[in-house]
Write a structure and sequence with these properties.
- This protein has 666 residues and is α+β, with helices and mostly antiparallel strands.
- It has 23 helices and 13 strands.
- Strands 1, 2, 3, 5, 6 and 9 form a 6-stranded mixed sheet that branches. A 3-stranded antiparallel sheet has the order 4-8-7, with no helix packed on it. A two-stranded antiparallel sheet has the order 10-11.
- The longest helix has 36 residues.
- The protein binds ligand LHPKVLDO and flavin-adenine dinucleotide.
- The site of flavin-adenine dinucleotide has 22 residues, from strand 1 and helix 12.
Length: 666
């Protein structure tokens, strides 16, 4: 905010019962992270190249070219200022525009790191790090996305020339969707079925050059282009999601990523001791980052809706005084505050998930693979529930802002359009929950065998207790006890998984059973993932959290998150007998009282996200709350208002009016 400018939300900020600066540190993860983030936010906001207020007005071509300009400028600044990786990734965050660079850094580089041999990494990574080559991740095809084993592209080894022949045998085998592919990438990690000596060896990644490094023209045998406009204006249309066909394209043998499986000069296929699933490792990495993205997108929407709800007034004027702030309506609170709590919950679970991922990666380097299934289940499941909740929440925030939320300059429509594909990319959310369900059913089926479940399924080791325990909640106050809450969530989750396992056992063919019970399995998987989020929020509170009143606010938010989920899924808790209807009602009583505790802190709790007005790009979410004059000014900037009488008046409006007049005279 400019120095001396009026702050229409100052009153809201004065009622805060905690130290906002300390909460900013907790949200950012550390004082260092906050400092870096703050500096990079200012760097981006002060640079005219990164302007984004006109984005929804641009044609696709203009938008795309502008994105190229921003990406090139960002890279120039990163190099000039010798920014660290941490600083560079904050620059990407605040530039706030999907671009080919996301796939280059986020998938192409990690695919080579995770699936390439030492030699391959030494050859390709320096080129990629300097952006002397630009890569994408070409897995999905027109006919197959979720079913990776069903991909049709082939990579046939030719021992005569020591090459692989990459080919798209059918229309449905055309690569379809990869970001950065359509117009920019010079290279791809393309996934194809490996065929050696007429035998198939599953799907593997191959580094394929697509375009000339001299004139950017597609190489012989490559057909490549953009797949067309996507949902919404601006939004994901800055990305060149592409289509790609291979017509017997030859690549050297050493361009197959060979950490998992090697093909020798003689055409021998050698399986290394690394599990096959590592071929899916890049997806595990990105799913983990997508959980962190969910907390960012959700907090952004909630920040806009909270500030605007404090500015907006409707009804309730007493003796000509001001009307009621809509944030004071209990319905507004019961819709908004759980989303605020969810933003914090997702933030902390993503922190934990990142540490789990780092730990598993270190173990994989040492040749320990036992924690891979849990890492897969956690990343897949949390990616699924956090993105689904965030997509719904952004739309709810739009509605919380009434009519003005539908204006592009509220920032919410574009945020929604850019965010919703997260429910689909990197694994459709239902497909991913089915993966979690497989993991849970397997864990349950091993309970009798003496194998002790660990990590996020450790609670299943107490199955005997959880299957019959009764919650001893007797008052609304009891629901503030994390142990009580966690036990109710554990009982619900365990009982849902066990019920699925029992029902599955009734089918002679387990796969048929899995298919028939899929809807129940997905619900059991979601229950397990919600338990993880709740538990990790409570565990966060065990840490030392400095700053006046900060921990207290987080305790309130953790209870709101847990009781909101309980209230929303009350049917599960009741039907599994994890709690009684009376206890469910007490949880709801507690939730109401928690909302009242959040109310005086709401604006400060969203200030703690530390978002600049540039990043929010929302008239409704402005830090200073100066909404109405800005809405009014912005309206006049619309190109339709460039002329008082619109283009087309002479051709279309005038003749109509004249005709109406004639008719009226008749
Ligand atoms: C210095 C400068 C820096 C500048 C910074 C600049 C930029 C920013 C940088 C980075 C940004 C960072 C990140 C963001 C990047 C990009 C994000 C943006 C946009 C997103 C792009 C989206 C890209 C995509 O969508 S890529 C395509 C994704 N596709 C999918 O997800 C497909 C989903 N399908 C599957 O995963 C699988 O097919 C399946 C559903 C899992 C089924 O597989 P299948 O083999 O058939 O399975 P089965 O069920 O039999 O399982 C067998 C066995 O394997 C286990 N399994 C399955 N998957 C995994 C896994 N991933 N890991 C481990 N194990 C796995 C499964 O459990 C089974 O085990 P078991 O036999 O039962 O024990
Ligand atoms: C914006 C965007 C960017 C993308 N970027 C990339 C990229 O960079 N690289 C890349 O390779 N791919 C990319 N993709 C592709 C993406 O990964 C796939 O779209 C995604 O994995 C879903 O696969 P699908 O499209 O085949 O969906 P489908 O599997 O066809 O899903 C359709 C419906 O079928 C259901 N379904 C499917 N299988 C099952 C099942 N077994 N049981 C029950 N229901 C099922 C799903 O739940 C869904 O409702 C991108 C997609 C989008 C939208």
């Amino acid at each position: 905010m400019e120095v001396g400018a009026p702050d229409y939300l100052a009153g809201e900020r004065q009622t805060a019962e905690f130290d906002v600066e300390s909460m900013k540190v907790t949200w950012a993860g550390s004082r260092h992270a906050l400092e870096v983030s703050d500096r990079m936010a200012r760097l981006v906001a002060s640079d005219p190249v990164f302007r984004k207020d006109n984005r929804v007005m641009l044609s696709r071509k203009e938008l795309f070219k502008n994105t190229l300009r921003k990406a090139a400028h960002a890279w120039k600044r990163i190099v000039e200022l010798r920014l660290t990786e941490e600083e560079a990734s904050r620059v990407r965050f605040f530039v706030d525009e999907p671009a080919f660079t996301d796939l280059h850094w986020g998938m192409f580089v990690p695919a080579i790191k995770g699936q390439g041999t030492e030699e391959q990494q030494q050859k390709w990574l320096p080129l990629a790090y300097k952006m002397q080559i630009i890569g994408c991740y070409a897995q999905t095809e027109l006919g197959h996305g979720s079913n990776v084993q069903g991909l049709e592209t082939t990579a046939t080894f030719d021992p005569k020339t020591d090459e692989f022949i990459i080919h798209s045998p059918t229309l449905t085998s055309s690569k379809w969707w990869p970001g950065g592919l359509g117009k920019v990438s010079t290279h791809a990690v393309a996934y194809a079925r490996l065929i050696v000596d007429g035998q198939e060896h599953g799907v593997h990644g191959f580094i394929v050059q697509l375009r000339s490094l001299d004139d950017h023209m597609p190489l012989p045998g490559i057909t490549v282009g953009d797949i067309g406009m996507k949902f919404g204006s601006g939004a994901y249309n800055s990305m060149d999601n592409g289509v790609l066909r291979f017509d017997n394209v030859r690549i050297p043998r050493d361009q197959m990523l060979m950490r998992v499986l090697q093909v020798t000069r003689e055409g021998k296929v050698i399986q290394s001791d690394v599990p096959r699933q590592l071929i899916y490792g890049t997806m595990v990495f990105v799913r983990q980052t997508i959980v962190a993205d969910a907390s960012c997108a959700l907090s952004r929407a909630v920040c806009i809706a909270t500030r605007y709800s404090a500015v907006r007034r409707q009804f309730g004027s007493q003796n000509g005084g001001p009307e009621t702030q809509v944030i004071d309506y209990k319905t507004q609170q019961s819709r908004l505050f759980p989303l605020l709590a969810s933003a914090y919950a997702f933030r902390f679970v993503s922190e934990w998930l990142k540490s789990l991922y780092t730990d598993v990666t270190e173990k994989l380097q040492r040749g320990e693979f036992s924690t891979l299934p849990e890492a897969h289940a956690c990343t897949a499941g949390l990616k699924s529930i956090t993105t689904s909740a965030t997509a719904d929440a952004i739309e709810e925030c739009r509605k919380l802002c009434g009519g003005h939320g539908y204006l592009a300059n509220s920032g919410l429509p574009e945020l929604f359009a850019v965010y919703v594909p997260a429910c689909t990319y990197e694994g459709d959310n239902t497909v991913l929950l089915l993966q979690v369900a497989r993991f849970l059913v397997k864990t349950v089926s091993q309970l009798g065998s003496g194998k002790v479940p660990v990590g996020t399924t450790a609670y299943m080791g107490r199955a005997r207790h959880l299957i019959q325990c009764k919650s001893n909640v007797q008052s609304a106050e009891d629901w503030l006890n994390p142990q009580v809450v966690v036990e109710a969530f554990e009982a619900r989750s365990l009982r849902m998984s066990v019920a699925c396992a029992e029902n599955l056992a009734k089918f002679p063919n387990p796969e048929e059973g899995f298919a028939q019970l899929a809807a129940d399995l997905v619900e059991a998987a979601a229950a397990h993932c919600q338990l993880i989020v709740v538990t990790k929020f409570f565990e966060k509170l065990q840490q030392d959290i400095p700053g006046k009143g900060v921990k207290k606010q987080l305790q309130i938010l953790s209870s709101v998150y847990a009781l909101y989920i309980l209230h929303k899924h009350l049917g599960d808790f009741l039907s599994t007998g994890s709690i009684t209807p009376k206890q469910g009602a007490l949880a709801n009583d507690q939730l109401r009282s928690l909302y009242s505790k959040i109310r005086p802190n709401a604006v400060a709790l969203v200030d703690a996200f530390n978002y600049t007005d540039h990043y929010l790009s929302s008239v409704l979410g402005r830090y200073d709350g100066n909404v109405y004059p800005t809405l009014y000014e912005e309206a006049w900037k619309d190109p339709l208002n460039d002329s008082v009488v619109p283009d087309g008046y002479q051709e279309y409006i005038r003749p109509l009016l004249k005709q109406q007049i004639r008719n009226a005279r008749l």
